[in-house]
């Protein structure tokens, strides 16, 4: 377990290039272009290689829910496979809780996946001949944990994901949403510290998907787990994320909180993602508040985590700046009602 100062996940100058002699070609391209990633990637493409992940660097904080999103082909799934070492990276540094996994031995990787890393993918990968209980308990069986102990732990996690009473059912007897819950439970049974989820809900019907998103947030609230979640759905990203990384053509274009992505997109690509998003439902008060100064008038006060819609409703009649308070009731800033209106303004297109 790492200390709070150590990133749960850290990657630096990460590249994943597909094609013949990829590593040598990348080294040559970077040397030729003074480590200019865009120029190096262009040279690689001209030679018929595919730079699926290009010079990516970021940290994920312990306990953070970090969403990576982008269109199909943007590199998001390749990136998460590099972070989890399902793919050997072409170049760059990947560390999990300070440990360099890019150079970890096969034996160490097996140990990490058994005891520290959980993974869930779009396709559930359940064993059709095993019951729900045995599917969930399987990772503990691989670790050599006794039957009674592993089944007791599996029952706890099955209850956590809302499948209590279905322990004896087989995958063929379950709905798509229930099978996905089994996959989530199986990835959690080993008390993983870092959890990778690659579009886990994208194959589900919209109603079931929204229900699982809500349940996922409830599960997350009970865990002390760092989560990397892949999606192509901006609404899902905004609903779940602490921070979002948006990818295009193998590059990370912007990293920010949901409020920052919605209110301050860095370019037209990100702006297009957020174009149809209801800003007031996703942007938070702390994204537009200013430092408190002077004596604030008596009247309504806001919480820093409120949505802009809720804040505007609370202070619609105010003619002066309104106090913003933290969870303990202390004033942490102020908002002028006019700033809320400005932040929610949508330009005509």
Task: Give the key terms.
about 350 residues; alpha/beta; Rossmann fold; CBS domain Like; 2 domains; 6-stranded mixed beta sheet; 4-stranded antiparallel beta sheet; 13 strands; about 40% helix; globular
Number of strands: 13
The side-by-side strand order for the widest beta sheet comes to 6-7-8-3-9-10
| Computed Rg | 23 Å
**Portion in strands:** 15-25%
In N-to-C order, the SSE pattern is EHHEEHEEHEHHHEHEHEEHHHEHEEH
On the 0 to 100 scale, the average pLDDT is: 86
CATH superfamily of the largest domain: P-loop containing nucleotide triphosphate hydrolases
| Residue share in helix | 25-40%
Helical stretch tally: 14
Q: Report the major sheet.
A: 6 strands, mixed
Query: Which residue ranges are poorly predicted, with pLDDT under 50 across at least 5 consecutive positions?
Result: none
CATH architecture label of the largest domain: 3-Layer(aba) Sandwich
- CATH class of the largest domain, please? Alpha Beta
Q: Supply the number of structural domains.
A: 2
Determine the N-to-C terminus distance: 50 Å
CATH topology of the largest domain: Rossmann fold
Which outline best applies?
A: globular
Decide which structural class fits the backbone. Answer: alpha/beta
Subunit structure: The complex is probably composed of two ATP-binding proteins (TmoW), two transmembrane proteins (TmoV) and a solute-binding protein (TmoX).
Family: Belongs to the ABC transporter superfamily.
EC number: 7.6.2.9
Keywords: ATP-binding, Nucleotide-binding, Transport
């Amino acid at each position: 377990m790492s200390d709070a100062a150590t990133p749960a996940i850290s990657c630096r100058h990460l590249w994943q290039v597909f094609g013949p002699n990829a590593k040598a070609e990348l080294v040559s391209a970077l040397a030729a272009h003074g480590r200019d990633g865009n120029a190096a990637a262009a040279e690689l493409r001209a030679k018929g290689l595919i730079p699926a992940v290009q010079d990516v660097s970021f940290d994920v904080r312990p306990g953070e829910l970090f969403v990576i999103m982008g269109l199909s082909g943007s590199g998001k799934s390749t990136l998460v496979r590099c972070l989890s070492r399902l793919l050997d990276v072409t170049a760059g540094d990947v560390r999990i809780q300070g440990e360099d996994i890019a150079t970890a031995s096969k034996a160490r990787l097996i140990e990490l996946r058994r005891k520290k890393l959980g993974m869930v993918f779009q396709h559930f990968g359940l064993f059709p001949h095993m019951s729900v209980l045995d599917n969930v308990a399987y990772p503990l069986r691989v670790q050599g944990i006794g039957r009674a102990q592993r089944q007791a732990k599996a029952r706890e996690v099955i209850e956590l994901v809302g499948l209590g009473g279905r322990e004896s059912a087989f995958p063929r007897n379950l709905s798509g949403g229930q099978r996905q819950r089994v996959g989530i439970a199986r990835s959690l049974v080993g008390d993983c510290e870092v959890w990778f989820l690659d579009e886990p809900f994208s194959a589900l019907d919209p109603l079931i998907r929204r229900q699982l998103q809500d349940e996922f947030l409830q599960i997350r609230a009970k865990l002390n787990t760092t989560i990397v979640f892949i999606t192509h759905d901006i609404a899902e990203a905004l609903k779940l994320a602490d921070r979002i990384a948006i990818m295009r053509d193998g590059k990370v274009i912007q990293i920010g909180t949901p409020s920052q992505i919605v209110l301050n997109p860095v370019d037209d690509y990100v702006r297009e993602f957020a174009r149809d998003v209801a800003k007031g439902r996703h942007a938070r008060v702390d994204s537009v508040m200013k430092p408190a100064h002077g004596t604030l008038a008596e009247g309504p006060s806001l919480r820093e985590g409120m949505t802009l819609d809720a804040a505007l409703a609370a202070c619609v009649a105010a003619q002066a700046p309104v106090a913003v308070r933290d969870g303990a009731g202390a004033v942490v800033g102020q908002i002028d009602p006019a700033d809320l209106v400005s932040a929610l303004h949508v330009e005509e297109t």
